[in-house]
Each structure stands twice: as C-alpha cells, then as structure tokens.
Amino acid sequence: MNDIIVSPSILSADFANLEAEIKKIKDFGASWVHVDVMDGHFVPNITIGVPVVKSIRMVTDLKLDVHLMIENPEKYIEPFALSGSDIITFHYEASKEKTEEIIRLIKSFGKKAGLSVKPKTDINLIRKYLPELDLLLLMTVEPGFSGQSFIKEGVDKIKDIDLSLYPNLLVEVDGGINRETGKICKALGVKVLVAGNYVFKSDNMKEAIANLRE
Ligand code: DX5
Ligand code: ZN
Questions:
Q1: Does residue 1 have a pLDDT over 90?
Q2: DSSP readout, 125-159?
Q3: Is 174 known to be catalytic?
Q4: I need a surface site. Which of 10, 27, 146, 172 has the fewest CB within 10 A?
C-alpha cells in the first residue's frame, strides 16, 4: 500500500444517482470525494453549491474535498464549512491579498485549508502561505470544465518548492488526470489525485482508481 489519495470529481458523475456513485468510489478505494463548486464568474460554468454538499455529507463518510472556483470566496467559507466540508480549497487568483485571512477563517471552523493556483500562475506568489496551508491544489487544466487535457506546466512548478520544508502540506493535482499523467505527478511528490472523467466515465471504475493509487 502506498499513501496516494484518490479524490474522484463528482462533476463527471451521474447527478441523478450521486449516492450510488459515491458508494462505488468508496468500495473501489477512493478516500476523498472532490466537489467542484463553480459560480459562473470566476469560471465560465455553473455547477453545484451548499445544498448538494449537505446532501452528500448525509450519505458518505468519505472526506469532502470542496474546490471553490468562485469570486469572493471569503463570503462562502462559513456555509461550506457548516455544510460538512472537510477540506475547503479556494483560488489565489480570487483571494489575492485576502488569502491569509481566508486560510485563518477556514481553520477557525476546524476545517483543512487548501489554496489553488491555475496552470499559469507563478508559484512564488503563494510561497509565503505554504507553512499555514494543509493542501496546495495545482490545477493542471484551466478551471471550468471536466474532460480537458492535462497541462504539465501546472504541476512542473512544484519543482521550485522544497517540499521537505512543509511536512504537513499535501499537494493535490486536478485536471486531465489519468494513469499516465497521474504517474508524472506522483513522481514529483503529489499525494492527492483528483480525477473526473478518468474515473466516472471509465468502463471499469475499480481498475481506474487502482491505476491511480498504484
Ligand atoms: C476543473 C475541475 C476538475 C475537473 C476534473 O475545473 O476543477 O475537478 O472536474 O475533471 P477531469 O479529471 O475530467 O479533467
Ligand atoms: Zn476541481
């Protein structure tokens, strides 16, 4: 057993059967569920919000890995925390000088705090927050849609960070992750793989999750 965490993105799941879909990924070895929240402003797409997180919380004990792709994330931390999220991740491109305050706010609810950067965002802009963070989410597609192709530049920037300085930081990647691209990320020290299409659109979900964990 290794310590790779698979966090399937329910954006690619069958929304009419979410409970069954989540049960399947749990049986097949996923330990987190990735929930993509989009507001139609930060990204050109609208997905799901607090009521869905609440409902999922009632049917699973998997960790809820909530990825906020929204403007003004500070306004929505409380409702997402109270709805049963375990990890709340927001975007540096949306938080800028409010980043530190939002990290503290998430932690004040006893939740794990994650910060995400888009593929082209300079990693040096967020270096100072790393000691406070539980999770760094490196986007390997432009956020907004599932089913896009992996952008290697998004994860390559991790080479500029000495991960041994942050023993409690988990690095997660999101976008275009499959067996091959997952391998590239794991070799760079990534511990959490988000995958939407590769897991939920697979003919063999069990094998897909096993391939990511190997
Ligand atoms: C993209 C989302 C991703 C996406 C992943 O904005 O944050 O989580 O749903 O989907 P795949 O794995 O299909 O690229
Ligand atoms: Zn995501």
A1: no
A2: GTGGGGGG-SEEEEESS-TT-SSPPP-THHHHGGG
A3: yes
A4: 27
